Structures are given as C-alpha cells and as structure tokens.
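Figure 3 (text version): structure tokens given as input.
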C-alpha cells in the first residue's frame, strides 16, 4: 500500500490499486503495475521457442562472416526493406525453413540465388575442410578483370550431441583464405581447423555444412556470391 512521506505536502510513495507512486530526484511519478503473464509451457509453445532460438543462432553464425553480412546488408526484395539490418534480413528469410526444429536443405546462406558452383568433393577431417569446385565457366557473370580472387564461407550446423549434457545444437562459422580466381580450372579451398573445432565436430552425430563461394576484387571487397551448397 502507499504511504505518506511528507505530511505537509501530502506526497506519497507506494502502490494504490493498480498504480505505483515513485519519487525520483524530488519528482513524483505515477505508473501502472506491470501485468503478470502466465508462462506457456505447452508443447506448441516449446516448439515455437526452440524454432526461434535455432533461427537466431543460425542468423548470428551467418552475420559473423563479414563477406556474407555485406551481401545481406545490401539486399532487398518485395518482403525485405533494404533499410533493415543484415541480422533482421537473415532471420526473416530463413525462419520459414526451421519449422521442424532443424535446418532444412532450403536454407539461405546468401540472400538469393547466386552463380552456380559445383562442389565435386568436400572432405572433413580432424585437421581441415577441403572443398574442390569444378570450373565455373563463362556464364557466371563474373568479371575476372575486377574479381581476381575468391574465398569460401561456411557455417557448420551440429545437432544430436553424443553427450546429452551438451547443447542440442551448435553452429560454427568458418572461412578459407582467398585464392586466385579461375573460370576455366577447378579451384580448391582449404579451411584449417583448430583443436577445439575438431573436438566440436566429433561431439555431434548429425552435421550439415552450408558453404558459398564469394568473389573478391583486388582490395578484398566481396563482389558476387554463389548458390548455397550443402554437404552432410
């Protein structure tokens, strides 16, 4: 209940019904009591929370790779305003593809369709990830007088941990060092793994590797991106 703190001025502090009186720096303010909300622990609510959490984690993983974040920041379409942040755009684009609580193969690592890149071989071991791409060809829209190098951006998605004490899912953001770009010859990208990353890979039984190639100009700025390629 409220109490009078100054009998001459009649100023009060405390609760009166659904209202709260406060005195801050000599000024009295009045606000409504916050309404209590019952926590929804139904199976449907749990599914929605897990789906939201999964999409947020995946969004953070993409957003942490500067080259991919650049493309998302510049992207807009009929449903996404270019003024929105890259994080919001990534989340909005991919949320429909996490409805089952796992990432579907329709997920977008990049904002839209990119140039076609065929990963003929993807090898993951304790030390590195090696991806070999077939020759891109001349129909990619890539200008080799401007785009002189390329690199591989990757997000590793893990679920079904071997140890139940671990998080039910985890993301690892990776990228290769840039290599010389060629349209006529195969290209090999290598991502070196540190010990902690190798242990993480071994700690989960189900894995998906989402990768996309990014072309770079002479200053290292991203120019074009490939389609999302999935290895599992």
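Below: residues designed for each position.
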């Amino acid at each position: 209940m409220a109490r009078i703190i100054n009998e001459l001025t009649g100023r009060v502090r405390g609760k009166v019904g659904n209202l709260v009186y406060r005195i801050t720096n000599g000024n009295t303010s009045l606000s409504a009591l916050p309404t209590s909300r019952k926590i929804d622990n139904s199976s449907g609510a749990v599914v929605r929370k897990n789906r939201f959490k999964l999409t947020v984690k995946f969004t953070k993983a993409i957003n942490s790779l500067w080259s991919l974040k650049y493309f998302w920041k510049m992207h807009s379409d009929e449903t996404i305003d270019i003024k929105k942040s890259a994080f919001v755009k990534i989340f909005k684009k991919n949320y429909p593809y996490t409805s089952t609580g796992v990432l579907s193969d329709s997920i977008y690592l990049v904002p839209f369709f990119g140039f076609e890149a065929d990963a003929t071989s993807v090898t993951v071991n304790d030390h590195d990830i090696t991806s070999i791409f077939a020759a891109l060809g001349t129909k990619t829209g890539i200008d080799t007088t401007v785009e002189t190098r390329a690199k591989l951006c990757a997000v590793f998605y893990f679920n079904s941990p071997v140890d139940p004490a671990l998080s039910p899912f985890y993301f690892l953001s990776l990228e290769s060092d840039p290599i010389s770009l060629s349209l006529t010859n195969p290209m090999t990208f290598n991502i070196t793994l540190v010990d902690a990353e190798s242990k993480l890979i071994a700690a989960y039984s189900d894995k998906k590797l989402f990768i996309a190639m990014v072309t770079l100009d002479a200053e290292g700025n991203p120019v074009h991106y490939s389609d999302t390629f999935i290895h599992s």
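The CA atoms of residues 89 and 186 lie 33 Å apart.
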